[in-house]
Specification:
It is a single chain. By secondary structure, the chain is mostly helical. The chain is built from five helices and two strands, in the order E-E-H-H-H-H-H. Helix content is 48%, strand content 6%. A hairpin with a 6-residue loop joins strand 1 and strand 2. The longest helix is centred in the last third of the chain and has 18 residues. It starts with 9 loop residues before the first strand and ends in a 6-residue tail after the last helix.
Amino acid sequence: MSLEEHDGRELRCRMLGHEVPFGYCRAMNDGLPCRRILDCWHERFDVQTFVEAHFSPEQLARAMAPPPPKMLSILELIEKARRSAEADPAADA
């Protein structure tokens, strides 16, 4: 079973609101699958066996972890921007 075997299959993404190929779902998370890949694709083919064959348990644990709370993400972005501005004072000019 090759990694790209199902990449041409498409379905409607509930998060994006339009059709996406399986290849997108398989690698959209920095090369790891979307955390919803099992829920979305289980009716189309044995996606559980597919991901277990192509990703390590550690990779799957990272991919399936719930996203951080939105407020935490916003605060992290603010902190990153602050550090960037401190490192490059010319950017403020």
